[in-house]
Amino acid sequence: MRHQHLAGRLLAGVLVVVATVGLAGCGTDDQALPDNQIGADPPRPVGMQDPAVIPTGPAASSGSCNPRASLRPSGALPRPRQMPSGTAMAKIVQRGRLIVGVDQNNYQFGFRDPLTGQLTGFDVDIAREIARGLFGDPGRIQFRAISSADRITVVKDGTVDMVVRTMTMNCERWQEVNFSTEYFTAGQRVLVTRGSGVQAIDDLRGKKVCAAAGSTSIRNIAEKGTVPVSVVNWTDCLVLLQQNQVVAVSTDDSILVGLAAQDPNTEVVGPRFSDEPYGVAISRESPELVQFVNGVLAKIRSDGTWTRLYTRWLTSLGPAPAPPVARYRD
Amino acid sequence: MGSHGSAVAVPPGRLAVPSPPRPPDLLRRMTTPLRRTPGRFTAILAGVVVLGLLTGVVAFVGVRQRADLVRGVTARSGELAVAAQSLYRALSDADATAASAFLSNGLEPPALRDRYQRDLADAASALTVVSAAISDDSRGAAAVARITARLPVYSGLVETARTYNRQGLPLGVAYLQEASGLMRDELLPAAQELYGTASTELDEARDRAAGFPWVAVLLAVLTLAALVLTQVHLTRRTNRLLNVGLLVGTGATILLVAWLTGSALVAAGNLRDSRDEGSAQVNLLAEARIAGLQARADEALTLVARGNGTAFEENYGVVMEQLAGADGSGGLLARAREAAPDDTTRQAVEAAIARSKEWSAAHRNVRTLDDSGEYAKAVAATVGTGEQTTAAIFNQFDEALALAITHNGDRFEREAVSAGRALTGVDIGIVGLSLVLLVGAAVGMQRRIVEYR
């Protein structure tokens, strides 16, 4: 009797142990569902900075010279392929092609036609006119796609004969290279969504405005009281405008025209609030080439070619104005 | 035996004392039966039965849990790691393919478009597997949520880029770069984190499954010791050398210890092999394959950026160095070759190393062409149809590594399944042996107890 009691108690103890272990194996799963809140922020272009870092350092000095004044052509243009011997033009003709540094990312000025893969645009066509003047054939040309930072280097080290790449003439750059006469007058303006009611930069006080990082445009729009947002490439600004992440894009109209041409729902508005004369950069060692290019530019201003090119590429900025007036040092 | 005959059971009268006993009295009365031989035998029997029962139960539950853990290694953690790796690869491949497709003047080659869509489908199906399998509270769960939320945004940007590209607008490039940025800054890091979490979970599950059943084995050894001591005791008290019941019980216990230990060691060995020769290889190979995909994306994006692609080209250099070392014969690929567990893997990795060298040479050619203004030729050398294009070389590279990954994935599965097989039937065996042990002990002791009645 007594032994059965003992065994029974022990058995009960073992059963309790078994039951506990068994139950632990199949615990009920009554956890709440996970709470993973994800923000719905729009995606950002790589390298976007909001707010932008405002570049410091002195603004481009404007006073000490007249950046528009170039070298006067000497006499009439030589006939194609018949360049005076010993000149830079003669060397180019002998080589058989003109080598020009251009942009391949500035829609309407210098870019690759996606259908043909060929470089094209306003700058590229100006360069082709120079090739036509040298060879009588606009196709005798080799383009080198160069970055903005390389523009002066490639001219100085002779990698290219000239650079036609939305390049503003200023006194600092005149110290490094020669420039042709002005072939386009650019200035900073504003690109906004059509119907936004923004008329000029002054309407954008306290609003987000996009510009490329490190550009003078950033400094200008910061001075106008806007909130600058910077990106790496100008096209990223149009992406931000389309995604409603900024209210406007502001830079030279030569760039804005390329953005406006890609989205018919945007427009370039307001007056120019900076003055950027564009010229062809050429080595200081060949002033005769500068004179030759100035001769070609004088020809295309007067024979209607300039207006035709403007109309072909730049109508987003409005109807073609009169060509920029050539100014010479003497 | 005869001398003990007088000491029979306790007189019933003494049990029926009504007055509440004092503690020393109670203790004495409770232990009194144990000082008599049959009472002692009964207590010993009870002890052995309890130990045997406990051993059986602990060993049984332990083996069942271990079998579940091993099944979890293959069915859950293994699948989770495979799905997480597949997600990471599919996303990287989408990034590389979208960029390559972009280079072909607006009209992307149908094969690249198909591959991109395949990648998105693979990523989505891997994502459903991963989100079902990942534990809710892990960091992986947050990564799953991020990928789920951002993947549609990514594909939207790619389609926008594609539309603009077909219209010939540079805006397409900007959207593609934004898409690629989203992929690289948010999606791929999340996928990488997820893959890391899944691999850790797999390792932990494997460690748990491969642990030695110390408690069960210790209990079994205690039971064994108790049985041996009982027999020694019985032999002294009864002058009988053998007790068949107890001997059978002892034999069953020895078998139980051996089986428990052996199956655990074999399973642990298989699990170790499944890691060393299976999943560790897969991890290394997958890392190399994904590095290759990123380098391919960088190569294409450098050209897509048209002169603004320096950052991508620099990244290509960094990733290629991780992949193949500074001189083309180091990095992840060299590590994978050293660690290759068999000829199939080694040959595949060596093929990948050879392709990576060809690729680097072809890439230098692409850069020379692009830097000298021959953009169209550079594009043709990157996404063209010839044998010497970086596209053709890259595809061979990718296929070699894919082959090695599949091969080692199969290996992992084989070893993990073998580990499960080592434990098959052990639970039933334990029940059987425990029963034999209990019945043997009970029958053996009962005979002796009865002899005193």
UniProtKB/TrEMBL annotation, chain A:
PROSITE patterns: PROKAR_LIPOPROTEIN. It comes from the Bacteria. Keywords: Signal, Transport. Residues 1-24 form the signal peptide. Residues 30-85 are annotated as: Disordered. Residues 97-317 form the Solute-binding protein family 3/N-terminal domain. It holds the Pfam family SBP_bac_3. Belongs to the bacterial solute-binding protein 3 family. This is Glutamine-binding protein GlnH. It comes from Plantactinospora mayteni.
UniProtKB/TrEMBL annotation, chain B:
Keywords: Membrane, Transmembrane, Transmembrane helix. The chain crosses the membrane at residues 41-63, 212-234, 246-268, 422-443. It comes from the Bacteria. Residues 1-26 are annotated as: Disordered. This is Secreted protein.
